Amino acid sequence: MKFRSLNRFFTSLFLLSIFSTATADVKLPPVLGSGMVLQRDLPVPVWGSADAGEKVSVFFAGQTKTAKTGDDGKWMVKLEPLKASSKSASLIVTGNNKISLDNVRVGEVWICSGQSNMEWAIRSSMNAKEEIAASDHPNIRLFNVPGHTTSPLPKEEGRGNWQVCNPKTSSGFSSVGYFFGRRLQKELEVPVGLIGSNWGGTRIEPWTTLAGFESVPELSKIAQQVKNYKAGTKVGGGSPSAIYNSMVHPLAPLAMRGGIWYQGESNGGEHMSYYHKKHALVNGWRKVFQNDKLAFYWVQLANFRKENQNPEGGDGWAKIREAQTKALDIPGTGMAVITDIGAANDIHPRNKQDVGGRLAQWALHQTYGKKDLVPAGPLYKSQKIEGGSIRLSFDHVGKGLMIGKKAGLAPTTEVKDGKLAHFAIAGEDKKWFWAEATIDGDTVVVKSADVAKPVAVRYGFTMNPAKANLYNKEGIPASPFRTDSW
Description:
Number of strands: 24
Distance between the termini: 95 Å
Structural class: alpha+beta
């Protein structure tokens, strides 16, 4: 009898030791995995969970960092800034167990987010077969957040895994993200890690953090709504912060250089409210990723629907495009203008190559200091009334202004004998007329026989400015704008 009791005692002790070992294992979030890219030149957080009080050590590139797990079972260390490296290495984490992340490289990391036009896969884009076949890039790594999920409170655990970019792994990844990353990798000659977190048809609010809403006084009501969430609160794809909580928060605080963003169609009826929400989005993401200089580049909405023949314009997405442009007052941001590559009958234009390329143009110029590159097409700066005409000045003129034509994936061509189109002009009576516009040096002069004393100009200020054709000689289109506030 004593023997049986003793045997049960040792059996229980053995099972308890196994259970204790299992619960004590160090765990990492999926975004820290084999095949990943670590951000260069910034402190690199490495974090996870283990038993309370457990000692955890991280080894990488000659560095050793150690932390002790808190009472909440969480731990974090920060690697000192790393130099870019295309040589695969292993990151080792030890505690009660040992984790080896293999095939790790160091370079530039970006998150690619938004609604369906960012989610749009390479396999559904222009020249898909050829692009996929040519996507063998060992120095580009892809991490796609799977599914469309929400949560009322920020989630610590997410899903996904890193993959080396090649024809077997690339086809389902964000085409805008891929073309953006491909250009960066080619021109910077360092590894590039791309994280896709997208959901078609979504508004900006579900992607925004509580802290982001709280940072903008105009959004205090939304902030209060999110603050009232409990674990059991029912949320969906349209609920403020709900997508962020489930599809972005588990990625934080991964060290990364920046984010690219293609969204706005689902907020298309808004004006300045979207401007405030863009501030909240950027503020919140910069805080959660612990980088107040996190670069952020977005896509202005493309031309769509039937062309409006009314010179007054102001219909459809005209005002949200204006809000997207105004949000460039956020430091460290930029905007890719694509009103020349949309499709009247398709909200998902297939040319994602130029979208990714124009986003990369901003990043290369502003984030990576390639000042020889002009980051964008002409952006309206100021107007000067000169009797019966108005002279317009622009930022980002580059090598000069031109009348351009863009067709498919071919570079923009200059139309030597062309005429500028889609300019409208008005006097104090606020009646709009189509105008004659001519390039004069680095400015544009606008006039109309119908308006003797003009006070304001509009350019491409409509849902589909199909005839808008002002470019700089780098081949990038001017953003739609208006000089009035009527």
